[in-house]
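May I ask for a single protein's sequence together with how it folds?
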Amino acid sequence: MSMSLAPDNDQPLLARLEAKLLAIAKTEGDFTTAIPALTVHRRNSVTEPMPCIYSLGLAITVRGGKQVTFGNEVFNYEPGEALLASVDMPAVSRVTRGSLAEPYIGIMLCLDTRMVQEMAAQLPLRRNRKGASQIGIRTHKLDPAILDAITRLVDVNAQPALCQAVAPLIQREIICRILVSDCGPAFLSLNEGANPGRQIASCMAWMKQHYMESVSIDSLAEQAFMSPTSFRQHFKAVAGMSPLQYLKNVRLQEARVLMLNEGAEAGAAGLKVGYESVSQFNREYSRLFGAPPLRDIKRVREQQTRQKQTTENPADD
């Protein structure tokens, strides 16, 4: 699902932004900035498909190419294009174009729900028409004004005296420009008011925080003020999957983080995220990540080691 929001006159803006990001991401990896919501990402090669969760925010490709699979939908976004996630969305992501000489460069700007609601209250906005798609993720070509605002945000990151005061102003500007774009009505419907989309988004946020707990469709539907049947329908329209599939994705992602970052054993990680059966955890983990937990974690760590060696010894390639 792609929509053009801008004429093809953004190359100078992209080149300027790319130069600033390369100054931050001098090697392969993920880089935080002085602005907590803003991260920079560099990959020196194409990557294998990687299950992940996109949080509310704007993921922008500045150089190279990226592909994200969400349910049955496949999104490709090129330089100057972005993926807008209106809610926390499980997906499968991979870099499709990137090399040591021409690395993939991207940025992620997380958006704050309260800030979205605050800006929406100040703008005369179109609301989503009844029956319109409320899918929680989509790609689009960025308006040059948003690219310019992103570049100014990166500039402010390098100015500590201004960053704390000015960065929130630019973030508000970016949100306003998203809200008045073609994506605005659907984006707003999942982040404002008491409509079904917003109720589902709130339920998804609750599930992400309480993924260790045992939940039922009936209790989730009651929380969303819907019948179980209506809840399932609205949930799939937003998330592209059933509520239980969404919960399973969140649990498995969290278990992977525990094993990678904290060295947790597979069985312990599965039980900690809410699984009652280690064998069931292993089966569902293999289905999502393509390998059993131990083999998958070993594969990821070997890949990280290779990437580090490539970065430290570029002349060897």
Summary: Confidence is low (pLDDT under 50) at residues 1-8. The radius of gyration is 20 Å. The first strand starts at residue 2 and ends at 3. The CA atoms of residues 134 and 238 lie 5 Å apart.
